[in-house]
Specification:
Helix content: 55-70%
Number of strands: 13
Structural class: alpha+beta
Largest sheet: 5 strands, antiparallel
Number of helices: 23
Length: about 800
C-alpha cells in the first residue's frame, strides 16, 4: 500500500490498512541509545516488550528512568513557578546547548536549589514586611485612641479643678467624692494588649473575651479601611485594630489564648507619646529597607526564571526523549554475550528503507565497530492496524475507531464514512441557512487552526476543533439538502425559477382548502416553494422524506453487504462468499430492495398504488390479484419468485456453513497427519507447537449455535435496520417544524406588533433559540443518530472491528503525553 503502483488510479491507502511486518533488530550495546533515538525520529516501529516477566525495578535502565523522572519533577516545579509569575516558556527555536543528560541533571539541581532558596528568603522577607505593615497600622490606630483618651482626661481634669466640689450639676460624676478621696499612692494598674483580628471574627472575638473575663475588660476597636495582607496566610483580608484593657495576670493569660485561637496578631505598644513617634519612624524606615530588598530579590528571581524560560522547552523535550528512549531500551532483551540488545517490533513494509537508514546512521555516528542487524520474522500473530491519515481524514477515522479498530487489512468503513456520515447528518439537518452557520463556524476553526492547535482549549472547544473538517463536510451537505428541501430558516425561496403552481384566483382564499393548480413546468431543483403553506405540505413532505429514508437505508445496507464480499475475497474465504454474502444480498433485496424498486416506479409513473398493502399482502396472500395496486405487468409473478428466494436464503445462510467448516477441519487434520510422517524432527516440533496453539478442538455445536445466532440477527436486523433508517425522516421533520415554530411564533409575531423594542426582543429570542436549539442541540442529536446508523446498521454487515491500533515509538507523539 505504501509503494507507488502503476495504473490510472492512486492506491486507496484508507481502504485496507498498511501491510505490516514483524522485524528483529540486533543492536550493539554501545550504539543502542543512539539507534533507539534515531528510530524515535522515524516513528514507524512498534516495539514488543521482551521483558514482560520483569518488574520495572528489575530492568536494566531503571536507574536512568528514575533520574529522568526526577528531572521531569524539577521541570514541573520550574513551570509552576513561571506560571505564578506570569511567564510562559519561550517558543523560539534555539540551538541545543545541553545534549548531555548528566550536565543537564547537575544544572537543573543547581537551579532548583537556587530558586528554592530565593523563594524561602522572599517568603521570609515578605512575612516580615507584612508584619511591619500591620505594626504600623496598630501604632497609628492605637496611638489615635490613646491620644484622644488623654485629651479627654485632661479636659475633664481641668474642668473638675475649675469647679468647686459643692457645686453639682447633671454632668457631675456621682462617685466624684469617692474618687477624690481615693488614695492616689495606690493607683489601679491596668494592662492592655494591641493587635489586629479579621473583621469577620471580631464580634465572636469580643464576645468570647467578655465572657471569659466576666466583663472585667474594656475593648476598643478601629476599622482598617483597606484590605491587609496577612503575614501567615499571605491573603488580603479585612481586619480591625483592637485594644483590650484588663486587670490581673489571669485575665491577661486568658486574652492571649483567645487571641491565638482567633488568629489575632499581637504587637507591642507604648503609652509614651514620644516612644510612639519614635517607633512609627523606626518602623517606616525598616519598611522602606525591606521593600528595597524584596524588590531586588524579585528582580533577581525574575531574571533567573527568564533564563529558565528561554531553554525550558528544549530541556523538557530532551528529558521526555531520554525517558522514552530508556523505557524502550528496557523492552529489549540482552543477548547472552552481554554485548547486544535484541529488539522485536511491528513496522509497515514501506518503512523498511527508513529504518535501515536510521540503523546505518546510528552505527556511523556512534563509531561502532559492529553494525545493527535488521531481519524480517515470519509469524502467525495478528499484526496491528495502521492507516495513514491526514488532518482531514483523521477525524472520520476516529469515528470508526471509536466503535472498534479494524482487524488487520479488513475493509475500512472510514473511506465511505467521509461521504456517507455528513450526508446522512444533512438529510436530518436539511436547511441551507443553518448549514451556512455551521460552515462559518467550521471555517473559523480551519482558518485559525495553526494558532488554535498550539493553545490549550477547553474540553468542548477542543473536541469541536478536532472535528472541524467533519463539521465542514456536514455543513456543505446540509446546504445541499437544504436547497433540495428549499428551506432557509424554514422559509422557502424561488431560487431556481418560478413555482409551477398558482392560486385559483387573485385572492388565494382557496389555497389551503381547495389547493393550487399547475400553471408552469415542474420546478427544476428541489421542493417547489408552493408546497409550503398549502394543505398538502405535511402529507407530501412526509411521503417524500419517508420513502427517501428507505431508499438511502437499503442502499447503505447493500453497500455493507458488498463490502463483506470484498473482505471474504481478500482473505480467501469462499465459504463467506457463497453461504453468507449471496444469501444475505438475496434476502435483503428480495424484500426491501423490491420495496425500493416499487417506490421508484411509483414516483416515475405517478401511480396511486398503496405500497403498504402491496408489501403486507405479499406475505399474507401472495397468490391474490393486486388489482389497483399493480404497478407493472408480471408484478405478481415477480413477488412470488422474490418471496421464494427470501425463504430459501434463510436455510442457505444457516445450514451449509457449519457442516462445511467441520469437513474442512477434518481434511486439514488428515492432511497434517500424512505430511508429518515424512517431516524432520525440527518440523515435527514446529508443527506440534503450532497445533497446540493454533488448532483447538472443533466444537460443531458451538459453531452451529453461532451461525444460528448470526442468521437470526441478520433476518430480524434486515427489518429493524430498515425501520431504523426512518429516523432520517423523523429528525428531518422535527428540525423543519422547530425551525418553523421559531420563525412564525417568535420572529413574525414580534414583527406584527410594529414596535421597535418588541421587534428587538423578538430578534434576540429568535437568535438564541436558533443557536441554542437548532445549531447546538439539533446538531448534536443528528450527529448521534448518524453515528448510530453507521455503527449499527452499516458496519454490522461486514465490520468485525476486533483489531488493535499501531502505536509506534515516536518522538512526534511526546507532546501529546501528560507527564
Amino acid at each position: 500500500m505504501g509503494e507507488a503502483r502503476g495504473g490510472c488510479c492512486p492506491p486507496m491507502d484508507l481502504f485496507r490498512s498498511e501491510p505490516m511486518q514483524l522485524v528483529q533488530l540486533i543492536i550493539p550495546i554501545e550504539s543502542s541509545h543512539l539507534t533507539v533515538s534515531y528510530l524515535g525520529d522515524v516513528g514507524l516501529i512498534q516495539f514488543k516488550d521482551l521483558n514482560a516477566d520483569k518488574s520495572p525495578f528489575q530492568r536494566t535502565y531503571a536507574n536512568q528512568i528514575k533520574k529522568c523522572g526526577e528531572m521531569a519533577r524539577k521541570l514541573r516545579f520550574f513551570k509552576d513557578q513561571m506560571l505564578k509569575t506570569g511567564l510562559s516558556p519561550s517558543t523560539k527555536s534555539m540551538a541545543q546547548a545541553d545534549n548531555d543528560l548528566e550536565e543537564l541533571e547537575v544544572k537543573l539541581g543547581e537551579l532548583e536549589a537556587e530558586l528554592i532558596e530565593m523563594n524561602a528568603n522572599n517568603e521570609k522577607l515578605q512575612r516580615g514586611y507584612n508584619e511591619l505593615l500591620e505594626y504600623k497600622l496598630v501604632l497609628q490606630k492605637a496611638g489615635e485612641f490613646f491620644h484622644s483618651a488623654q485629651s479627654t482626661a485632661m479636659a475633664q481634669q481641668s474642668e473638675i479643678e475649675s469647679h468647686p466640689i459643692g457645686e453639682e450639676s447633671l454632668d457631675t460624676p456621682l462617685l466624684l467624692e469617692q474618687e477624690m478621696s481615693t488614695d492616689l499612692s495606690k493607683p489601679v494598674k491596668l494592662g492592655f494588649i494591641t493587635g489586629l483580628v479579621p473583621r469577620e471574627k471580631f464580634m465572636a472575638f469580643e464576645r468570647i473575651i467578655f465572657r471569659a473575663t466576666r466583663g472585667n475588660v474594656y475593648i476598643k476597636q478601629a476599622v482598617v479601611e483597606d484590605r491587609v495582607t496577612d503575614p501567615v496566610s499571605g491573603e488580603k483580608i479585612e481586619k480591625n485594630v483592637f485594644v483590650v484593657f484588663y486587670s490581673g495576670e489571669r485575665a491577661k493569660n486568658k486574652i492571649l489564648k483567645i487571641c491565638d485561637a482567633f488568629g489575632a496578631n499581637r504587637y507591642p505598644f507604648s503609652e509614651d507619646l514620644g516612644k510612639q513617634v519614635h517607633m512609627v519612624k523606626e518602623v517606616s524606615e525598616r519598611l522602606s529597607e525591606l521593600k528595597t530588598t524584596i524588590d531586588a530579590g524579585l528582580v533577581h528571581r525574575s531574571n533567573l526564571l527568564w533564563t529558565i524560560a528561554d531553554q525550558f522547552d528544549q530541556w523538557n523535550l530532551l528529558v521526555l526523549k531520554e525517558k522514552s528512549i530508556y523505557h524502550t531500551l528496557n523492552m529489549l532483551s540482552i543477548d547472552v554475550t552481554k554485548k547486544c540488545l535484541v529488539a522485536e517490533g511491528w513496522s509497515p513494509v514501506f518503512a523498511t528503507k527508513q529504518i535501515q537508514d536510521a540503523l546505518r546512521r546510528a552505527e556511523f555516528d556512534s563509531n561502532s565497530e559492529v553494525g545493527a542487524i535488521f531481519q524480517v520474522l515470519r509469524t502467525k500473530e495478528l499484526p496491528p492496524t495502521y492507516f495513514r491519515t491526514n488532518k482531514f481524514t483523521s477525524a472520520f477515522q476516529e469515528i470508526v475507531d471509536a466503535y472498534g479498530v479494524a482487524k488487520y487489512q479488513e475493509a475500512n468503513p472510514g473511506v465511505f464514512t467521509i461521504v456517507t456520515f455528513p450526508f446522512l447528518f444533512a438529510v436530518m439537518f436539511g436547511d441551507w441557512g443553518h448549514g451556512i452557520c455551521l460552515l462559518l463556524g467550521s471555517l473559523y476553526f480551519i482558518i485559525r487552526e495553526k494558532k488554535l492547535s498550539s493553545q490549550k482549549l477547553g474540553d468542548i472547544t477542543e473536541m469541536t476543533f478536532g472535528g472541524r473538517y467533519v463539521i465542514l463536510m456536514m455543513a456543505i451537505f446540509s446546504i445541499y439538502t437544504g436547497l433540495v428541501y428549499n428551506e432557509f430558516f424554514s422559509v422557502p425561496f424561488e431560487l431556481f425559477g418560478l413555482s409551477a403552481y398558482a392560486c385559483r384566483d387573485l385572492s388565494c382564499r382557496d389555497a389551503t382548502t381547495m389547493g393550487l393548480i399547475k400553471v408552469r413546468s415542474t420546478y427544476p431543483f428541489g421542493v417547489d416553494p408552493a408546497w409550503y403553506g398549502s394543505r398538502s405540505e405535511l402529507p407530501f413532505l412526509n411521503s417524500l422524506k419517508m420513502k427517501m429514508s428507505i431508499l438511502l437505508g437499503v442502499a447503505q445496507m447493500n453497500l455493507g453487504i458488498i463490502l463483506s464480499y470484498f473482505n471474504a475475497k481478500f482473505f480467501g474465504n469462499s465459504l463467506n462468499i457463497w453461504y453468507q454474502f449471496v444469501p444475505q444480498i438475496i434476502f435483503l433485496n428480495s424484500l426491501f430492495g423490491y420495496l425500493s424498486l416499487l417506490i421508484i416506479v411509483k414516483w416515475c409513473t405517478g401511480s396511486q398504488a398503496d405500497l403498504y398493502h402491496v408489501m403486507i399482502y405479499m406475505f399474507l396472500s401472495p397468490t391474490d390479484d393486486l388489482g389497483e395496486n399493480q404497478l407493472f405487468g408480471g408484478q405478481k409473478t415477480i413477488q412470488l419468485v422474490l418471496l421464494l428466494l427470501a425463504l430459501v436464503a434463510v436455510p442457505w445462510m444457516l445450514l451449509p456453513k457449519p457442516f462445511l467448516l467441520k469437513k474442512q477441519h477434518q481434511d486439514r487434520h488428515q492432511g497434517q497427519s500424512y505430511s508429518l510422517v515424512q517431516s524432520t524432527d525440527d518440523t515435527l516440533q514446529l508443527e506440534a507447537s503450532h497445533d497446540s496453539h493454533g488448532h483447538e478442538e472443533f466444537e460443531f455445536s458451538e459453531v452451529f449455535v453461532h451461525q444460528l445466532i448470526h442468521t437470526i440477527e441478520f433476518v430480524l436486523g434486515a427489518v429493524s435496520n430498515t425501520a431504523s433508517y426512518l429516523r432520517l425522516w423523523a429528525l428531518s421533520l422535527a428540525h423543519s417544524e422547530l425551525s418553523t415554530v421559531f420563525y412564525e411564533k417568535v420572529l413574525l409575531l414580534a414583527w406584527g406588533f410594529n414596535n421597535v423594542i418588541i421587534l428587538a426582543v423578538g430578534i434576540i429570542v429568535f437568535i438564541f433559540a436558533t443557536v441554542g436549539v437548532l445549531l447546538v442541540m439539533e446538531t448534536l442529536s443528528a450527529f448521534l443518530h448518524a453515528l448510530r446508523l453507521h455503527w449499527v446498521e452499516f458496519q454490522n454487515k461486514f465490520y468485525e472491528g476486533d483489531g488493535y491500533k499501531f502505536s509506534p515509538f515516536s518522538f512526534a507523539l511526546l507532546g501529546d503525553e501528560d507527564e
